[in-house]
Every structure is written in structure tokens, then in C-alpha cells.
Amino acid sequence: MIDLGLARINRLLQNTPQAWKAIHVAGTNGKGSICAYLSAILHSTGASCGRFTSPHLIDRWDCINVNGNPVSETVFRDAEKLVKRRDQEDYVEATEFELLTATAFEIFNRQKVEFGVVEVGLGGKLDATNTLRQKTVTVIAKIGLDHQSFLGNTLEEIALQKAGIMRRGVPCVVDGSNPPAVLRVIEDHARDVGAEIHYPSTSELASVLSEEGYEPHQIQNLACARLAFHLARPDHDVSLARLSKAVRDAWWPGRLQMLDLGSITGRPQPVLLDGAHNTQSAEALAAFVQKHLRLQGDQAVTWILAASQGKDMGGILGLLLRPGDRVAAVRFGPVDGMPWVKPSDPSSILALAAQHGVEKAQQRDGSDDLRGTLNWASATAGGGPLVIAGSLYLVSDVLRLLRESKAV
């Protein structure tokens, strides 16, 4: 259930101290990467750092990270048990995400972290994470159209919801590559609130990191993280070499991740795994595929796709697919702790793929059979490129299946 508002979470957190300094990150795309980069930089400079992002990838507790490592199941369940008892005793009736947020904050308190890097779950103004009491820096990443039924139907309306994380006197880092109309909304709100806007420069990073294979959107996200770090710890500096190492060490799977699926399919070539689930992230994925996988531009790609209900798959497929591509569509499995998330029917994805030039003979309805679909795609692709995309929940299922296959 999604039910935005701060009344329940405030009651749930009234007995959880928040002595740590918070860095709050909102946006449609890039906010999770910024959190991963930022926590890695903080940890590399000796700061004790917690990170809370959503959704989880493999296990429900891996969305809570302390000093570079996901918390253990024991630590998670012990804090969750306390939070759920408070919820019941005080008749709060909190949502699943509110319970998860309170659990993360409880763990940060117990672990005595110095900084907490927190990703907004949905929107900003009314998101459960907006109960942070000691914000040091806020960050607004790239904003696009997503979750319109909750946030508004225009970029400007969505931007205003995201800008709701700002606080008076707290600096706000903003991705300057956002459209001018979005930036105007954010700047107007900053003036109303009394927050100072800071725009990161990418020129120095791009001159070094482009040669290391970083994509433009990754450099933009890293620039935001670096500036947020400097504002949070003005007495510390990070060289480009140290910055690059910290980012390489950051744990952030499912974003342009090259994956070895040999233990499942026997395929020796790596597979690209990416959670692109809206048109903005699909645009970045399409650019990467065009640059690195399609070679001269005519190389066919085999895709495995899934989507949550309500996503703009027509727009996404229009960016990703080319005539001659092959497409398999599957359903992702139930999402632990998020029962309201439902997968799109594979047949609807394939119907859209046909509209974008994918022939019927090059399609497969994988239904609920992810392993069989992976095997079909590997055989169909041969040694050619294979990409898995469309949903972070599909990413989760693939990573979970890979873990199980290696444990046998």
C-alpha cells in the first residue's frame, strides 16, 4: 500500500533518536547511484556512514547499508521487531515503507553512524524519509515523468514534490542538467524555503573519468555526490584518484552491470543488467547499448524485459528496440514487503515490441519461467549482445537466481 503522509511515521519515530547528520537525496533517476557514490566517498574518508535506499535488490535487508556492507538479517529483524511492536502498541497502522524507514533509522541509531545517506522512496515532500531531523545537505537528482498518479502529470508538478525535501539554511545540490522549467520550480521553492542552491560542475570529472569508461549520466551523478560531500564535510578534500577508487568500490548492482550468467545458462559472454524502468533511464541505457554493444549500429540485441503495471513501456521500448532485435518478456515474482507491486503481462510487452519492429518469430513469452527465458535468450543471442532490463524487480529476480545457482 502506498499512502503518502508524515503523521504515522512521525509517531513511529518519536522514540528513535536521530543524532546522525542526514544527507537526503530525491529525484526520478540517479538518486540511488548518488547515494551509493556519496556513502562510498564518506566511508573512504573515515566517516561512519549508513545508507538507506529502495527497493531492496535480493533480500529485504540489503537496502540498509552501514560502512559499505548490507546489514545482517539478524540486525535487521531485531530492529524491525521493535518498530513493529511500537506500531502495534501505539495503533499507528504504518505502511510497509514507513515500517522499513523506521527500521533503517533505528539501525542507524544503534550503529552510531556519523552520517546517514537516505534516498527518498517516492516524491519527497510527503515521503516517509522526510522526517529526517538533522539534514546537513539535500540533493535533487535528475527529474522525469514517473509515478504521475501520486506526484502530478507534469515535470513542474513532480519537481515541486521533490523540492519538498529542502530545509531552511540547509544547502541543496541540484543536477543542473534538468530542464530549465524544472530548475525554475526548484529555485523558486528554494527562495521560499530559505535554502541555497548549489550546481555541480562536471568538467574536471569528465576530463578524467570519461577515459575510464564512465558514461555522461554517471559523471553527472558523481559530480552531485562529490559536491554534497564537500558541503557535508567542508574540512575534508578528496582527490580525483581517491574519488575514482571510492566509486569503483561502491556496491551498486543492476545499473549498467556486466554479469556472468554462466552458472545458469553456460553462456561465456557477459550479459548487461540494468533496472531502466522509465523513459529517462531507458534513454541512458539505449545510448550505452548503441555505443558499446551494437558496434557499427547494426548489431541485433536480444532483450529480456519485464515491467511493473502502469509503466510507459511503449516509450521505453521505442528507445531501446531496433528492427532485427529479439525480445523475451517475463513476469517478475512477488516483491517481499511490497505486495502492491504487480508485473505487466508479458503478452502486452510483446505486443508493444511488435509495434517497434520486432517480428513475431523473434519473440518469446516467458511467462513466469525466468530460468527458461534466460536459456532461450542465451541460445538465441549466440555470442551477440544480451540485455536484461525494464524493472529493478526483474534485476532482483536475476541476482537471486544467480546466487541460488552458485550455491548448488
Automatic annotation (TrEMBL):
UniProt entry tagged with the keyword Metal-binding: yes
A GO-annotated cellular component: mitochondrion
E.C. number(s) listed in UniProt: 6.3.2.12
Source species, domain of life: Eukaryota
Catalysed conversion reaction: 7,8-dihydropteroate + L-glutamate + ATP = 7,8-dihydrofolate + ADP + phosphate + H(+)
Keywords: ATP-binding, Ligase, Magnesium, Metal-binding, Nucleotide-binding, One-carbon metabolism
A GO molecular-function annotation: tetrahydrofolylpolyglutamate synthase activity
Pathway the protein contributes to: Cofactor biosynthesis; tetrahydrofolylpolyglutamate biosynthesis
Enzyme class, UniProt record, top EC level: ligase
InterPro entries, per the entry: Folylpolyglutamate_synth, Mur-like_cat_sf, Mur_ligase_C_dom_sf
GO biological process, one term: one-carbon metabolic process
PANTHER family in alphabetical order: DIHYDROFOLATE SYNTHETASE-RELATED, FOLYLPOLYGLUTAMATE SYNTHASE-RELATED
Protein family (similarity comment): Belongs to the folylpolyglutamate synthase family.
Protein name, UniProt field: Dihydrofolate synthetase
Naturally occurring in which organism (per UniProt): Phialemonium atrogriseum
Organism lineage: Eukaryota, Fungi, Dikarya, Ascomycota, Pezizomycotina
